[in-house]
Design goal:
Layout lengths: L16 H14 L4 H12 L10 H15 L12 E7 L1 H4 L34 E4 L24 H11 L1 E8 L10 H13 L6 H4 L3 H25 L8 E5 L18 H4 L5 H26 L2 E4 L40 H17 L3 E5 L8 E4 L6 E4 L5 E4 L8 E6 L9 E4 L4 E4 L5 E5 L10 E5 L8 E4 L2 E4 L5 E5 L9 E5 L9 E4 L21
Parallel strand pairs: 1-2, 1-3, 3-4, 4-5, 5-6
Antiparallel strand pairs: 6-7, 8-19, 9-10, 10-14, 11-12, 13-14, 15-16, 17-18
Amino acid sequence: MSSSHPHPRPAHRRRRTATVAAALAVGLVATLTPGSAATAETDSQIDTAPQIQPLPDHLEQIRADEAIELYGSPEIRPMDQRKTSLVTMGDSEISGEGVGNYTPDTDGPDNWCHRSFDQAVFRTGIPSDEQYNIACSGAQPQHLIYGSGASQWDELNQGDHLAIKARNTNIDLLWIVVGANGEGTIEFGPVATDCAVSRIFFLGPCYPTYTDEWAVRVEGSRVQVEQALNSIQQTMVDAGYTDDDYEMVFMSYPGPVSPDVEDNPDFPGWYDGGCLMYLHDMAFARNKAVPMFETALRQAAFDAGVRYLDASRLFHGHEVCTDNTWARGLYADFDGGYNEHAFRQSFHPNFRGHGAFADCMTEFWNSGAPTATCVDPASTGSVTLVDGLMEFKQLRNVGTDECLDGRGYNSRNRTVQQSYPCHGGRNQGFWYDVDNHTLHSELSHDRCLDVRGGTVESGARVQIYDCHGAPNQQWQFDGNRIKPVGHDNLCLAFNNPWFSRPTARLATCAWWSSRQQWLFETRDFDDPVGYGHDDFIGSRVY
């Protein structure tokens, strides 16, 4: 990295081990040998940047023309003399589809990339001279591979675009979201269309069509994404970059729908709000489809050795038809007539969603973490970056030897928390926020363990409810007991009914009561994505 770089990068740059070792060795030699010899050796060993490979003639002409626009002349400049840039690549999730305010050349009729002027890369707090959004709605992983010949509409392949930008500017950040489109992937568009049509015409839930084959689909996405990421890294090497010259971040997809929408006190209605899917299908999407997809994408990022930002829970509490939605619902645009593109903006991040993306990436850039999770734990409208991956654990009760369990795989407000055999499902997963003393449900992390009615007293029922951080949602661990903050005499416990399952209550702490003792432990995943039953909703089906 050049010392004259106009925008200092964080101190977390990835370094090649061999390069670092060589630099240390050169430093030691310099203290033992004459200056001129040491200088020559230093220059030869530290100058490890790969040679810039020539582009095909048609791409070189485009590059030269862009260089003239940027600098007034066509040559490729040394890295430290170039403008810095941020680049987004991928599909509709990051192109700006659903935001509106599209660049005219990508809003039909011959190009439907739907790049928005309000897309996230233009709204980060990361300093740069130029920002390029080369993502395109409908893009497949192959469209990000330089020289693949796979292109969309009347455009260059995104990999070819990148090769040009990498030679004309000093790319600081490559931000990539891809894997939802193309044969052999999850094929988000056709699946979402099928599920929406099934609901509109009351054909019954769509999830039985996909649940058994979803593992095959996500594995296909993983393989293709990893190939694309490896190709992009090679494209950067061919453009003269070393690993520590730029950051490459792969981000996962947030889920746009939730089976909890009826908890919205201002629920807009199924048609007006555009949340036209069966609740069973929304639960399938949130509880199984998105988590499995995220796991596969994470593995692709780790295998490729790039930074990874998990955004899969980012829209919890902000799904379509919630009170502060970050996603556009089912939406039809017939300005260009009735055609296959009329509904393409449906179930994509809206303006607020891309604002959340921008805030997440800014915090991730500044954090220096190789992996992080971006969430809005209390649906406040502002994001929180959690270092690493959020670990959801089970709460095993010593007295019953069973786990705290959201009845019916449900995260609706006031859902009973019961004793149930531990199975590793997401309705038994909890994440503890040590700063705010809140316990969050894995089903929807904007739902917290809550003392019903707000009165913290012995006998009060403990349930799941929208996180708001009030005293009736604050908990502290005291050895193997869990107590409401500020109430050392009260403990979380299972009651002991005669004819039904024990449920969670507050009780006066008693040293002898094993039902007040808990193990907050890593789970054995009998049901790793928390979708083992068809009765996972606990709510009527539309």
